[in-house]
Amino acid sequence: MPSATENRPKTRTIVFCHIDSLCCLPALNAVFAEFGNDIGLVLSSRRFGSSHGTFWEQTTAGFRRFGIPLNLWLGFDLISVPIVAFFARWLSRVTGRPPALATMPELARHYGARFVETSDVNSAETLAAIRACAPDFIVVMNFDQILQPPLIGLPKVAALNVHPSLLPKLRGPCPVLWAQARQDRVSGATVHAIEDRTIDAGRIIAQVEVPIDGATSVGELTTQFFSAGARALPAALARLSADRTAGRPQQLSDGQYLGYPTALQMKDFRRAGLRLCRLRHAAHLVSAALGVTRWKP
User: Is 95 helix (H, G, I), strand (E, B) or coil?
Assistant: First the structure.
């Protein structure tokens, strides 16, 4: 875990919104390494028991809609993090060594940020917590809730999203999968302003291109793209701090919004060679989160 810089004055205040994801752990740790002392509030999406339904309701619906492989991979990516975190805390007490990849609650605690789980980021309670923080920025990364206008207008400078594609291409919840399924040879990450409730549609502040190897799994690309987005955040925040109107508008007609693929589409993708994850990559993430090994991109 990166060490906090003691007594460093805050240059800005950030509210950070995220949902636990094994593949996003490297990007999450990179964001806190850069901005940990500026993050005053961490909002974690409570996925289960919310409007999405219970764990079993979501699992059953996912099997019907996406098929078994995609649903299992999405579930593993989310559920593995709290399980790994539980054992990581125990190992850390035994070895005295913090994990190379810390989870969001641990990062919030380490840097002194308030940690709030919410099933509705636009609720009155959550808005009150954000107002109390008086943020300059709201930063969203891998978050499954849509910010509404009352919330979007709260930061003094801007609300931003880190999206794992080169917008306006591949708007939607799983752009990494679609980039690989369509056999794109380059994609990447976009830091864009959140200006209204339209998904992935605001001004582009920064973009980073990442080449795609056709043999790379969706999980590996997810780690690469979000890490690229995390690296682009410092320049994006600096640019908006200097000029709140910075960025270029998107031409949404140049791209498209794609939701989750159907079970039939996933069957075709897998027949064409698409791989959702590699055991080696998942094992590397887990071992780094447990503190057994270092994280090597």
Answer: helix
